[in-house]
Amino acid sequence: MDPIEPLIEQLLRLLGEDPSREGLKKTPARVAASLRYLTNGHHKNLDHIVNEALFEEQFGNMVLVKDIEFCSMCEHHLLPFFGKVHIAYIPSDKVIGLSKLPRILEVFSRRLQLQERMTNQISEAIEFYLKPKGIAVLVEATHMCMMMRGVQTQKSTTITTRTLGLFAEDPERYQQFLALIQSPLGRH
Q1: Domain encompassing residue 157
Q2: Tens digit of pLDDT for each residue in 48-99?
Q3: Known active-site residue 74
């Protein structure tokens, strides 16, 4: 038995529920498994994720992977937030396998998280492994803690950004990044 299960059973009782009723009998095990999965990024190793997917390549233009979907858990309320991430970098002398950018995102999104911190962590990981000339990360998210409780706003989106290097220094580069993520190119 997962040690989380008795805690969930106790939580159900404290909420006025009967954990032995038909619909809740397996809930502690399901919640424990769900929480383990949703927070498995705490146990992932970025070195293992990036692996041998760094390649020497002279490419001086922007590399952009946009519309990467994610789900995470707000550390303040343990409610989901979800949306899209757009990651761009301008290589110095290395490129990374394109699938590794969504995998880097997954490491950080599968944690109890703040959107602001996750935005920084993604850019810092790319900086560490690639040392590019520039990085831009933009995260668009909907937060269930804002939809279900408190202000109860249904249509708000929170946007966080982090720019480093050429994207921070050159407004035209950053505008190009913004134009490309809004472009219908590559959208299905």
Answers
A1: 46-182
A2: 999 889 999 999 899 999 999 999 999 999 999 999 999 999 999 999 999 9
A3: yes
Q: What is the largest CA-CA distance in the chain?
A: 63
pTM beyond 0.85: yes
The question of whether 86 is a catalytic residue gets the answer: no
**What is the tens place of the pLDDT at every residue in 144-165?**
988 888 777 888 899 999 999 9
Is 115 among the catalytic positions? yes
Number of domains in the chain: 2
77 is an active site residue: yes
Which is the catalytic residue, given 76, 116, 169, 182? 76
Q: Are residues 33 and 69 in the same domain?
A: no
User: What is d(CA 48, CA 151) in angstroms, rounded to the nearest whole number?
Assistant: 41
**From the CB of residue 40, how many other CB atoms can be counted at a distance below 10 Å?**
13
Q: What is the pLDDT of residue 150?
A: 79
Query: CA separation (Å) from 171 to 108, 134, 135, 168?
Result: 28, 12, 13, 7
Q: Which listed residue (74, 86, 106, 121) is catalytic?
A: 74
Same domain, 9 and 66: no
Question: Is residue 188 included in any domain, yes or no?
Answer: no
For this structure, is 58 an active site residue?
no
71 noted as active-site residue = no
Provide the CATH number for the domain around residue 102: 3.30.1130.10
